[in-house]
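We both want to read discrete structure tokens more fluently, so let's practise on a single case. Once you have written the record down, we can walk along the chain together.
***
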Amino acid sequence: MSIELLNQLSRQTFETIILVGGPVLMVSLIVGVLISLLQAVTQLQEMTMAFIPKILAVFVTLLVALPWMVKVMVSFTRSIFENIPQYVK
């Protein structure tokens, strides 16, 4: 396995991780910041007020984006399996 092939495989792996995990993490971040701002403005420091909306937002995001996420992961896995002969050279 050459260095270029290893770099390409590493880049594809990190791109897939970012593509699959990015939407859920971004939604969680945005909802968390909005809830924190709401808590700071209203001075309510209830812990469940931060967790419940985030959990619901992540769940809805997973429901909406899961087919696309699975397609990305299957495509990456298929390319890994198809390129196994190149990796063992």
